[in-house]
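queue> pop job 88
queue> type: inverse folding (structure -> sequence)
queue> payload:
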């Protein structure tokens, strides 16, 4: 019989802590595939941050450097949607106001409004465009209407310290511009989406508005590619699976946060990657790694 030394006991405790931190303890078998895929990406130079929690209990199921602040591209637009949703409940704010797009708002990025003839749209319609297609023109018009300072103040009031919308959407970022559109930590992003799902962000009505807009999201290219849903119509449960998510895409950035519900459970998840997008194979490897996490999530809820 071998008597454990203090050093061996210390190593055993350290190993247990690492297992709990990265794989959520007893859920190791459920998330081994995703953890291995993200680990492979990290070995090959991809910066990775991820977290998944059980929606009902809050238990951490999966975690990889979830405290690290990462560039999250369009995910920060959710913070703008929270501010808009809160203002729609304010009688002093005209929720039916028609906003014009201006030359300074123009950006050749994601979204459909830039391809439409309508020069003006109501506030709520612009929010719906952001939820559905991450519409960057609509984003810039709404930021001009309410101001980035208001969005930042709202973000701080929610207690978010590592997550922020930093700037307008720009075709090119100069030395005087914020280096990223938005940043966030997987820890805070999963908290934000879990709180939205529970109706705890500002008020149940505000949370419901934001969730409604996000439920229109048509980007299923990352984690959600594993769920088998119609990217253009998934507001109702399909085979018992229901998702609300937001993605962020930029050069070298692929990020997604969402709430996934299934017949057995619900999860909140966030996965962010930052990589040298110099080869198509590198980008495809990142997307495949995110899909592997999605397969684990689907297995957990379904």
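queue> result:
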């Amino acid at each position: 019989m071998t008597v454990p030394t203090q050093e061996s006991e210390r190593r055993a405790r350290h190993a247990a802590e690492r297992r709990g931190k990265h794989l959520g303890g007893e859920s190791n078998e459920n998330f081994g595939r995703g953890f291995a895929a993200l680990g492979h990406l990290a070995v090959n130079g991809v910066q990775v941050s991820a977290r998944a929690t059980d929606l009902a209990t809050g238990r951490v199921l999966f975690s990889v450097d979830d405290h690290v602040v990462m560039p999250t591209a369009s995910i920060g637009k959710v913070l703008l949607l929270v501010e808009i949703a809160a203002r729609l409940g304010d009688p002093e704010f005209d929720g039916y106001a028609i906003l014009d797009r201006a030359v300074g708002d123009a950006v050749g990025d994601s979204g459909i409004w830039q391809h439409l003839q309508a020069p003006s749209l109501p506030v709520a319609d612009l929010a719906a465009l952001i939820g559905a297609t991450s519409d960057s023109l609509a984003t810039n018009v709404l930021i001009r209407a309410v101001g980035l300072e208001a969005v930042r103040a709202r973000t701080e009031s929610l207690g978010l310290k590592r997550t922020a919308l930093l700037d307008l959407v720009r075709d090119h970022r100069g030395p005087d511009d914020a280096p990223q559109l938005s940043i966030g930590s997987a820890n805070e992003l999963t908290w934000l989406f879990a709180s939205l799902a529970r109706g705890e962000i500002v008020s149940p009505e505000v949370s419901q508005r934001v969730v409604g807009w996000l439920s229109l999201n048509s980007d299923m290219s990352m984690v959600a590619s594993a769920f088998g849903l119609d990217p253009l119509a998934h507001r109702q449960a399909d085979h018992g699976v229901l998702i609300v998510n937001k993605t962020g895409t930029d050069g070298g950035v692929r990020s997604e946060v969402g709430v996934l519900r299934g017949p057995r459970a619900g999860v909140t998840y966030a996965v962010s990657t930052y990589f040298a997008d110099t080869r198509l194979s590198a980008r495809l490897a990142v997307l495949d790694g995110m899909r592997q996490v999605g397969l684990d999530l689907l297995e957990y809820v379904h």
